[in-house]
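User: Hey, quick favor. My workstation is busy. Could you predict this chain's structure for me?
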Amino acid sequence: MKFDSSTGLSTKEIEIIKYNIKNKISQKLPELPDPIETRLFFQGRDAWMFSWRLMNKDILINSNEAIALEVTVKLKKEFHKYVTDTKFRYLCNVEMQEDLYHPKLSMRKIA
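Assistant: No problem, here it is.
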């Protein structure tokens, strides 16, 4: 199931969740050579593509149930020559907190 506003979460909540997960996963991804990273930064681009899949289909907005997401991260084809592992999958659980901008995240890498 797609992770979008049809889940009952607002677009703002979804973007905040995605931003936090993306930041946490990005710290674990292989780095490209510095000149490549710098060029991408100045171009406002990213070498990685993220896709999101909602694992629990029935989210109640006011419930305390964690949101389970499968996040697939793929390296864009033009950068395959710099990194050996080009695809990663993570199972992420998100618990919303009172502070919307700091949800509680737990994640583990899956095959």
